[in-house]
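Priority: medium. Attachment 1 of 2:
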């Protein structure tokens, strides 16, 4: 499959005067950035769509409330199955000491998103003026105190649980209870529930909700109605879907669409 993916250009920041470099781009679906590293720290953010990245043997799938942080000299890459509006910040090594030393996801504060939007609108790639440099340093301060999440949608280690999660990935609207899934993989419901907590760090219901939320983001990007998305994801009413979405995003689907999708 990788041979049929279009390759993304790798940004070269070595030799930049620094201490910051900003990149703005739009990537089409079915594109790939091969594994690579930089001596600078690197924040990857999808302003629209969901970011799929890999680093240090971990896979990150992050919605627009989060960005993927890659510390200096860490090998990373990404595979994009859907189109995204991409934003990234490269940070010189000397400024990365207060930031996480392992690849992870960081919650994007309104301040970070606002500065990124302002810089993108003005095409600021290497901040030069005192005012822009101050804003860039504020972003680093915000990243240093941002909520860290190791994985938004963790993967299973055991074959039985992986079978269940793969089936849900193929059909997020499948609303069978945990007991039926356990029966399918020849386990008791209690054993499968324990595996979810041990391998995923969350319950089966929470994982399925996160999967549905991520699929909802892509559907909102495509302009589909809230009712259509709700039914496709297995909700009997739009209000039940809206309640789930609000728990995950802190906002309604239509408010989210206006803020993140520009629709």
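Attachment 2 of 2:
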């Amino acid at each position: 499959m990788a041979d049929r993916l279009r390759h993304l250009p790798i940004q070269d920041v070595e030799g930049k005067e620094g201490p910051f470099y900003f990149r703005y781009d739009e990537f089409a679906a079915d594109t790939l950035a091969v594994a690579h590293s930089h001596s600078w720290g690197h924040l990857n953010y999808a302003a629209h769509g969901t970011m799929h990245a890999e680093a240090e043997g971990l896979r990150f799938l992050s919605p627009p409330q989060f960005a993927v942080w890659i510390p200096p000299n860490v090998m990373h890459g990404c595979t994009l199955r859907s189109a995204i509006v991409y934003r990234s910040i490269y940070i010189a090594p000397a400024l990365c000491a207060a930031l996480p030393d392992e690849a992870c996801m960081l919650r994007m504060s309104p301040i970070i998103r606002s500065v990124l939007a302002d810089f993108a609108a003005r095409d600021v790639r290497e901040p030069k003026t005192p005012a822009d440099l101050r804003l860039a340093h504020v972003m680093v301060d915000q990243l240093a105190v941002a909520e860290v999440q190791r994985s938004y949608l963790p993967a299973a280690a055991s074959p039985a649980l992986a079978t269940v999660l793969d089936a849900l990935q193929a059909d997020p609207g499948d609303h069978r209870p945990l007991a039926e899934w356990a029966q399918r993989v020849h386990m008791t419901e209690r054993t499968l529930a324990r595996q979810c907590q041990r391998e995923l760090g969350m319950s089966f219901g929470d994982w399925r909700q996160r999967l549905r939320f991520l699929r909802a983001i892509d559907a909102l990007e495509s302009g589909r109605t809230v009712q259509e998305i709700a039914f496709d994801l297995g909700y009997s009413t739009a209000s039940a879907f809206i309640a789930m979405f609000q728990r995950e995003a802190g906002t309604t689907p239509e408010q989210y669409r206006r803020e993140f999708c520009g629709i």
